[in-house]
Amino acid sequence: MSTPNATEMNLFQISPLGIFWKSLAIGCPLLFYAFLFSHNPHTQFSSDPFSPLQLKFPASSSPNLSIHSPTNISHIGFIVISSLKTWNTRNPYILSWWRPNLTRGFVFLDEQPTQEYLPWPSTSPPYQINENVSNLRIYPKLVSPVQVRMFRSLLDMYRVVGDGNKDLRWFMMCDDDTVLFVDNLVEILDKYDHSKYFYIGDNSECVGSNFYITFDMGYGGAGYALSYPLVELLATRLDACIERYSHLHFSDHMAQSCLADIGVALTIEKGIHQIDLQGDISGLLSAHPQSPLLSLHHFDFINPIFPSMDRYEATNHLMKAAKFDQSRLMQQTICYDKKRNWSFSVSWGYSTHIYENTIPRSILRKPLETFKPWHGNANPPFYMFNTRSVTNDPCEAPHVFFFQSIEFDSASKNHLLTTYFRASPRNLPPCSPDGNHSADSISKIQVLSPATTRKPAGVIECCDVEYKAEMDSTEIVIRSCMKGEVVA
């Protein structure tokens, strides 16, 4: 824009013509913007989940977000990798965490749904069809075209989103047999500057998987998050990178290799779980690290996480607790009943263990090895963490109770009451020879936890234990630790 000269300035100031042109100069932009907003096509109903109409901003937020404003659920674009072959059996996992009209994203399929899949359920993410990778120049040399399709979902998503959704801050990629914990994910991503390049994920639980692929990778089934600017940059060179790494077998390995070439390394978040394990993973879930639970993968390859339920029932049962307070879900709290010489380990919303002995925290934080490694022929060391062996020693084997129900405490709405029932008899003698310390009579454990605030990530809490012999139960009250409190 040029600067007006002296004659023009004088004309604007004193002549009737100047007054007219001055009024027109001020008024026209105002009329233009009034017209623009009154005729905004996005004020019409749109089925596009990335339309501004679909955004859900908190009352304290504004669509004109600065990079310093808190991240909320509308800032994440979810990329769920699926196929027509797996859709019907895995859709229930997605439905357990997807929130229609709040979560934004797509399920990416390998082909157009046939009539048996239609009408597409409104409770599920809308679908997109991946671009056919057979059109790629490098296609004949690809070791795994299916994995390339999965990796290119990032590019397909970026193209669907387009430049009109700069309010997106993160892309979250995961498989269709993964359960996400969205509230915790929002809180974790809010820690990072989304305007920078970030690649956030976690390794496999198995040493072998990391060794034979790479320790530097965020495993894609469990999910990894990429900041918008990073995806924007990656999109310009993704296909060239596929040509460079056409020999790789896994989509997440391609992603990690491409990002490493850009200069971006993995940022570890311990709450993302690939679950490269087999069988009963209750031992792992009962000793979750002090980090918000973000995802659980491979639900089709493990036992149902609650006894006497199928996989879908068990998933939905866990989400009952998650809907009340994801910040506490599976967070381990350890406390002691010194009068009876009992140790308690609470995995909030999942399980509670009683040990008929005083066992140090350093031991109870190690998961019981109820599971097996992903690779059946693997040699030790198997896992990326220390474990405890399952034992029949009555002084080391727990009485196991699983989450049954959750409600607000009737006496005080400031607390949540979770109830845990015994899974099965322990069928072991008491730890103490005289039987005074036996916990066999206890049929349920009730846990009171604060309901008004989210549990800060990484903060260890304390608890008080009250044994109620007349009710064959124990009550545990979780609370903040007092200054200098000795917890063991």
Task: Describe the protein in words.
With 488 residues, the chain is of the alpha/beta class. The protein contains 13 helices and 20 strands. The strands form four sheets. Strands 12-13-14-16-17-18-20-19 form an eight-stranded mixed beta sheet, covered by helices on one side. α4 crosses α10 (251-262). The radius of gyration is 28 Å and the shape is elongated. It starts with 5 loop residues before the first helix and ends in a 9-residue tail after the last strand. The relative contact order is 0.09.
Q: Which percent range fits the helix content? A: 25-40%
Tell me the total number of β-strands.
Answer: 20
Structural class: alpha/beta
Gap between N and C termini: 72 Å
Tally of contiguous helical segments: 13
Shape: elongated
Uncertain regions spanning at least 5 consecutive residues: 1-67
Mean pLDDT: 87
- The value of Rg in angstroms is 28 Å
What fraction strand? 15-25%
Largest sheet data: 8 strands, mixed
In spatial order, strands of the major sheet run 12-13-14-16-17-18-20-19
Structure, briefly:
The protein is an alpha/beta fold and 488 residues long. 26% of the residues lie in helices and 20% in strands.
